[in-house]
Amino acid sequence: xxxxxxxxATEEQIQVVTEHLIQMGFSVHRxxxxxxxxxxxxxxxxxxxxxxxxxxxxxxxxxRISAPYKLAGRSFRPQGTVIEFPNGVKVGGKEILVIAGPxxxxxxxxxxxxxxxxARAGARALRGGAFKPRTSPYSFQGLGLDALKLLRDAGExxxxxxxxxxMEISQIELMLPYVDILQVGARNMQNFxxxxxxxxxxxxxxxxxxxxxxxxxxxxSAEYIMAGGNYRVICCERGIRTFxxxxxxxxxxxxxxxVHKLSHLPMAADPSHGTGRRDKVAPMARAxxxxxxxxxxIEVHHDPDNALSDGAQSLYPKQFSExxxxxxxxxxxxxxxxx
Length: 339
Ligand code: PEP
Ligand code: MN
Known about the structure:
alpha/beta; 8-stranded parallel β-barrel; binds phosphoenolpyruvate; binds manganese (II) ion
């Protein structure tokens, strides 16, 4: 950490700050310039709040040099994390995993129809909400356990991994027999009790960025899961709230290379929630692959106009298979393949 003192800071104020840093466990290296004094605090401690120093008299600026997360940081595993599934599918390596399916599981007919179509187009994992975090309590809330059973059946029939969202701790046990990946939705990114419980599992977790979360907050949430021993975390950019209203959210494509720089964890992109509009999903999916995404999460519905949730952002099966064709051309240009 670097503490820059104000030009007018007195020797006494510099001493107070130095003592403070030493008490925090840092060794302090002082540079006394002609006008200003800089204190470089060196140590392994990461759990501090720079504001405690910023408010001391005579301090001008405080800069954190080391990240506040350890396990999620790139230096923990410089080579990157590759998550492998029993069927040989990997996330985080050369192959890009495409996860596709409806926003919500609505019926057997719906799920099996969509699963067959996305599998034929080349998806290797099936998504579908069983428990839905809806903005309105009067909107469709999901079929729960029935949906999980349908997901497992469809996954087995079409050789697809299964991912579904877990909204609360009590659903974990119920879901485990039916899913290969547990999704934590944007609204739950900072549900720390839930994250801690997921840390006790071996099941991979796809952790979505909260609608107003910084990337540091996303990685600290990943750290919660990893601190419990579950290192199989996939981060996911799904769009954030900005002043732009044309799209449902603003898909922060730059989050992909940033997370790759800061962390060893695989990074997915969800252009469906990131845009909220069907016609914008394919361009953003292509951009995400070009930017280095390790996985894509895409909503597809055979009859999106009558979908019970997120129909407007769900691709028609034909659009999805055209997108897959495009991705197969783009991926090699950035040294990747589609799983
Ligand atoms: C979803 O994937 O259907 C979903 C609700 O996602 P998010 O948490 O990103 O809104
Ligand atoms: Mn959705």
